[in-house]
Amino acid sequence: MTQTTTDLRLLGDWGVWFPVALALALAGVAWWLYRREVRGVLPALRAMAVFLLVLILTGPVLHHRRTIGELARVLVFVDASKSMGITDDAMSASRKLLVTQAYGWFEPTNWFGLAASAEKLTNAMTAAIEKFDSVSRWQRVERMLLDSVLPALVQKHNVELWAITDTGPQRWWSGEQGLALPKAFPAKPTGEYTDLSAPIAARVGQQHDERSAVVLVSDGQHNRGGSPLEMAKIAGARNVPVFTVGIGAVERPTDLAVIDVTAPESVFIEDRVKGEVAIKDDMPAGQAFTLRIESNGEALWEKALVTDRTHHRKIEFDFPIRELATSQRRPATEYTSFPLEMKVSLTPLTGEKETTNNAAVFHTRAVTQKRKLLLLDGRPRWEFRYLRNMFERDPQWEVNSLVAGTELNDEWQHGDKPGQLPATKEALFAYDLIGFGEVPAKLLKKEDLEWIKE
User: pLDDT for 355-370, tens place per residue?
Assistant: First the structure.
């Protein structure tokens, strides 16, 4: 691809519009001074001469730029988790002023380089800090990218804007689409967790021969998926640099939150639900709170805890499920299993930055009937006996085991009793698992093999 662009530039550092405006102003002054002394077109000619003289002194040149080959691609990823929606009022005042200066919200000097009076400077600093405290991380990133960074990158690169969400990366805008940059982000930060690894790794791996770079804008709260460091190593091996831009205060805001819940997908009705809750503890040490698991307002498990400001904690839980499953089953209805929804919550504490993240919901299934295993083998090997004994001792399993006798020419009997093959396809499909060993084909009918294959 070959692309040529031509623009007018001046040799100085003033740009184009200021010298043109200055030339017009001086030309106007020259015309005004000579308009009374000389009549006719002479004042206009002198004004034009002044105008051209000023432009010549600024050194105008035509700049030609030719681009050969494909432009490099810059992938800008923005963390869209809920933590990006909070403010940073806990940040130090000096850093707040530096940020407000970068955004143009605070100017310690005027256009002539003169400092304002002490009173005006104090008022300006106070107003700038108040404005900073009212703007969230998301809003600061929005203005930084859309107003300055992306317009500059688009001039020399193919740029893509991506959001990192719970459902994976979402492309919000691409320079190749021919569309203007949006005035605002098309969504708000609503993610429950942040995976800074998988979305970037998936996009970087799409085209191996592409010259590209990654810009990651986040508050750094990675709490799901693989290691971002490993992702960066993989990208580096493909000659894709990763530039990270940190947003937010160095000090973590005071907050207590449920990050993740690890629980089994299904639990037998006579068993117990065992798992762990990962919480974020950035509160001052010594404050008492309660971790609670409930369903339909009924407490299933709770534990009294004390904050210790260790940031990341894992708390194990263990409670029976029979009473809960029995209360939620519909009478006169048979179930093999049915879903259960449970809520994990933390007691809100005074001084928390955000209380909407103090709760989370997780699901599991209550299995009300035993799972069925059909175990088939041609001889009573050690593996066969081990599997049969292990499943028979488990109260969650019902085992039907068949082993060939001394006469291998006889087919196995079919029926509904233990030691018999299921007589119908429906009966066979009622089993959850088939353990198929070294079974001679003569022991099975043709339809038996077809059903097992299905």
Answer: 888 999 999 988 877 8
